[in-house]
Design goal:
mainly beta; globular; Porin; single chain; 400 residues; 18-stranded antiparallel barrel; 53% strand
């Protein structure tokens, strides 16, 4: 019997061999890479995890070869190596490694209390293109919907609202077919495994997307983790402001979830506006019918698989958030993210400054300030953000 560790090592080896052999047959091979390092220091003990160390470092490198065989066929690969130290640190906002997928493309090289070294293939897909059809097979990044902080439609490894680095979304193992039967109309069908091969992560869905000038709209539905979900989305540009929204209804399959919510709605509305030449705003308000109105009932949501996989972004029912970006210098940007749980009043504020030393080197620094009622002495949560422990962070990004 092949162990998961052995199969992960075999998957990594197979990718390396394939990439080494590809240039002989390919018409074009391009290679890009990035190295990122994040250092976070918690400014006080986190009541939610008082025994955890205050410091954490994440070093992640990503090699991104793309092999183009013809105008109709290309292969995309992202090979990622992560070093997290210490491995047991409790933090909020670091880029995640993504959930385990159907393909055995992750291997842990070292794992101790001091450090964890993990290699993974975050993209490995073949893309076939014709004038009316696009077919992508393998591990790929997929996004549904129009909201970014509190998505109601994105079932494919969505970002957490608190995530610091959003440059690369985690890949999922899927087959995606996109067709354009007529101008401004796009049809998409997806079959995917959202988790390990023996989990209940099977997903199958379809979407229709229509563009009519300043208006985008669409409808979608499918089965995800054995749940039935359907929804719609839309956006419109009005006098320089983009207004967007989405709505979904889910009928859960899990027995515990069905006892709490036989079905539930999620919805969100947002806007994007360039306020001045150097100032831009993005804001959202969201309703989560799977969440709870009072913190006393949060534990049931916090313990759910639905929250763990990112399908819902928090334990409350109502949330608001936004990002204000200020381009204060040709090389510098101050971006401030604010998140508010409208049920318990807790707040997260995350200002960050990014300075582009040159086209290949960025430095950044900022803070994460969490305000709210701390957990009880028995660690029962009394707010979403209270007790997380505010942090300061620095980072560098290198591009090749």
């Amino acid at each position: 019997m092949i162990s998961p560790r052995s199969s992960g090592r075999a998957g990594l080896l197979a990718v390396v061999v394939a990439l080494a052999a590809a240039p002989a047959a390919a018409q074009d091979v391009s290679l890009a890479a990035t190295v990122r390092n994040y250092n976070l220091l918690r400014l006080q003990d986190a009541a939610a995890a008082p025994e955890a160390r205050r410091d954490v470092n994440l070093l992640t490198s990503r090699a991104m070869p793309t092999v183009t065989f013809t105008d109709a066929l290309k292969v995309e690969t992202h090979v990622v190596l992560d070093l997290l130290a210490p491995a047991q640190a409790s933090t909020v906002g670091l880029p995640g490694s993504g959930a385990a997928g159907f393909l055995p493309l992750t291997h842990t090289f070292a794992d101790s209390a001091n450090a964890r070294v993990t290699g993974r293939i975050d993209r490995l897909n073949a893309h076939f293109h014709t004038s009316t059809l696009d077919l992508t097979v393998g591990r790929q990044a997929i996004t549904w919907g129009v909201n970014t902080l509190f998505p109601a439609l994105d079932m494919f490894a969505p970002f957490a609202p608190t995530q610091i680095d959003r440059d690369y979304k985690a890949g999922v193992d899927a087959v995606r077919l996109t067709a354009s039967p007529r101008p401004h109309v796009q049809l998409e069908a997806i079959g995917a495994q959202l988790g390990p091969r023996h989990s209940n992560g099977l997903a199958a869905g379809a979407m229709v997307h229509i563009n009519a000038g300043a208006v985008d709209m669409g409808a979608l539905g499918g089965v995800f983790h054995h749940d039935v979900m359907a929804g719609s989305f839309g956006s419109v540009s009005v006098a320089g402001t983009v207004l967007r929204g989405e709505l979904s209804r889910t009928v859960p399959e899990d027995g515990a979830d069905r006892l709490r919510r036989p079905s539930f709605w999620r919805a969100g509305a947002g806007l994007d506006r360039q306020l001045t030449a150097t100032l831009n705003l993005s804001a959202e308000v969201a309703y989560n019918g799977f969440g709870e109105a009072h913190p006393d009932a949060y534990p049931a949501v916090l313990a759910s698989a639905r929250l763990a996989r990112g399908e819902v972004s928090g334990p409350g029912q109502w949330a608001a958030g936004g990002t204000l970006g200020w381009h204060f210098h040709p090389l510098g940007t101050l971006s401030t993210l604010a998140l508010l749980n409208l049920n318990d009043g807790s707040v997260a504020v995350m200002p960050a400054v990014t300075w582009s030393v040159n086209s290949r080197f960025d430095v950044l620094g900022g803070t994460q300030v969490f305000v709210g009622r701390a957990p009880s002495a028995l660690r029962v949560p009394r707010s979403e953000y209270g007790g997380l422990g505010s942090t300061a962070f620095t980072g560098i990004k290198l591009y090749f």
